[in-house]
Amino acid sequence: FPLGTITPNDPNYVNSDYILTYKNLGRLDVFGLDLGLQYNAYEDDRHNVNAGATLSWVNKDQLTLSSGENVPLNAPKVKASVTFDHLLKKIGIGYGFSFRYQMGYKAESSVYSGDVKAAYLPDLRLSYRPNFYKGLLLSINVNNFVNYQWRSFPGTPLMGAQFFARAQVTF
Questions:
Q1: In sequence order, what are the residues at sequence separation of 6 or more whose Cβ sits closer than 8 angstroms to the Cβ of residue 154?
Q2: Contacts of 58 by beta carbon, 8 Å cutoff, 6+ apart
Q3: pLDDT in tens, 124-134
Q4: Are 64 and 28 in contact (CB under 8 A)?
C-alpha cells in the first residue's frame, strides 16, 4: 500500500496543521442504570393496547480529574420515555403517542462546547395495514409535533418537528 504525507512548500502553510485528538483521563468511576418496560395492557380479537417506559440514569455528568479539572460526560444524567399504542385489528389501523425527556447537560468535545438544554419531545404515530394484503404497512410518524426547538449537541443545527412517511412491503 502506498503511504505518503503531503507537506506544503508555501511558508504560509507550513506548521499550520491542527491536530485534534483524545486525551487519556486515567481511571474514572461512573455508575449507571438502564431500564425498559413493555406492558401488553389489553388484547382481544379486535384490540391490542400496549404501554411502555424507559429510563437511563448515570450518577454524574461531570467527572473530576485528580488535577481538579472538571470534564463533562457529554451525556445527560437522566433520559426517559413513556409510550402508548393502540391497534384496531379488524380495520388494520394503529396509533400511538410517546413522550421523551432528556435532562440538560454540559458538553465539551473538541471545538464544540456549551450547554445542551433539556428536551421535552412528544411524538405521534399512525399506521395502516390493509386486510387485503397483510404484507403492506403504511405509516406516518411525527416526532416532536409541538416543534420544540433544541440542539442535541453543541455545534449541531436546531431540531424541531420531524415528519416521516413509510411504505413497507413484506413478502
A1: 107, 109, 112, 113, 114, 115, 116
A2: 30, 31, 32, 33, 73, 75, 77
A3: 999 999 999 98
A4: no
> How far does CA 60 lie from the centroid of its chain?
19
Question: Tens digit of pLDDT for each residue in 139-168?
Answer: 999 999 999 999 999 989 999 999 999 999
Q: Report residue 166 as a C-alpha cell.
A: 413509510
Mean pLDDT confidence for 88-92: 96
Which residue, 69, 67, 87, 65, is CA-closest to 137? 87
Contact 111, 140 (CB under 8 A): no
Per-residue confidence at 66, pLDDT binned at 50, 70, 90? confident
pTM attached to this predicted model: 0.79
What's residue 14's pLDDT? 60
Q: Which three cell numbers stand for residue 43?
A: 388484547
Per residue in 4-28, is it b (16+ CB within 10 Å) or e — as a string? eeeeeeeeeeeeeeeeeeeeeeeee
